[in-house]
Amino acid sequence: MFHKFSELSNIVEIGRTCVHPRYRNGRALSMLWLNLVPTVLWKMKAKHLMGCVSIRLEDNKARAYYTHQHLKKMTAKQSIDVKAKPAFEPTHPEYSFPQDERIPKLFDVYLKMNTRLSKQAYHDESFNCLDYFVFLDVNEVAKKFVLNKMVNR
Question: Which residues are the signal sequence here (predicted)?
Answer without folding.
Answer: none
